[in-house]
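User: Some background: our group keeps a shared notebook of sequences we're curious about, and every so often someone picks one and asks for a predicted structure to add to the entry. Today it's my turn. The entry only has the sequence so far, pasted here. Could you supply the structure so I can complete it?
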Amino acid sequence: MSCGCYLVAGKMPRITKRTVDALRSESGRAAYLWDEALPGYGVKALSTGKKRYLIKYRTALGRQRWYTLGAHGPLTPEQARKLAQQALAAVARGEDPQGDRKASDAPAQVKDVWTAFANDQFGSLKPGTQRDYGYDWERAIAPALGSLNVREVRRADVEKLHKSWRKAPYRANRILALLSRLMTLAEVLELRRQGTNPCRHVTRYEEKARDRYLDESELKQLGAALRSQAQVGAISSSAANAVRLLLLTGARLNEVLQARWTWLDVDRRVLALPDSKTGPKPIFLSESALAVFDRQRPEAGPSEYIFPSPQDPHRSINLRRAWDHLREVAGLTGVRLHDLRHTAASAAAGNGVSLLIIGRLLGHSQFQTTQRYTHIADQHALGAAEVISQAVQSAIEEQ
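Assistant: Of course. Here's the predicted structure to add to the notebook entry:
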């Protein structure tokens, strides 16, 4: 046999001290003796003269396993038989004794599974997804569970973590989804027993869609705050320009903040994103939006980013603090930067632009289901960009 072992020939006897003592390996190959009364229970004789009791079985998924019960000498054949009966009964219940042993012996912690996940799977994820996963790991999962043995994580631990983020239900559900991916990976790596993901049956929080958008009076308040706070230096000119561009285009936050100058095509009046949430995407630019880019060029300096960080030109600006300050000054408590995208879409819809054109203009994910309409000309989208621009510009700029 290619495995370098052989089985004792003839009718399988009952394993007793006499038959075990008589078992010998030959020509340096291990020999096996299987019990006639308890299928799967056997003893293995090594070339070293040592003998070990074991069972051979198949898991519920059909995978063959070998499970060592102990050495002959410390264990008698009858003691080993009782252990074999217990282990085979566990197999009959759908358990996997060898898989459990591997998980039990493994010193892996949850943070080790995270490292394996980041190393093996991050490359296939979009940058935004990588950032979100990194945030959820660093802020939530790592502090609570990172140092636990991955096999010891229980549903109670998961529920406690999930509930600790109940004031942010969307974030809590994303954290739960990431943790579930890690626990599934732990099973694949045989660090947990199959089918024991502790995130199963943890109830997700209800997520209510937010359709908040700014009306004309709120746009005027925001416009006044943009001008005044940039003039006194409370926010940077770059931050003010970025907020204006979000309003004028309806682009997603990261689409604007991560944009490079090389993506800007003034002649075609588009910011051509090589990738986005829905793949490559053009952001159509009105004349007012193009003017924002003109004002931003001296602010960006030599950076490849259109909106670089003032601390590091090789990174994009962070609008979080600037936006928190702006909405406080403008009296827009609770308004998110993403609501500026809703505002742009509302301005288009309120001025008679079709939902199909709005989907084309904003790059909605639903547009993937309407690719048969790709004959829609870019000038229609540019016209819609002008409609949004006129509705927004008149409110946020002084007349």
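Suggested note for the entry: Residues 169-188 form the longest helix (20 residues). Residues 293 and 306 are 8 Å apart (CA to CA).
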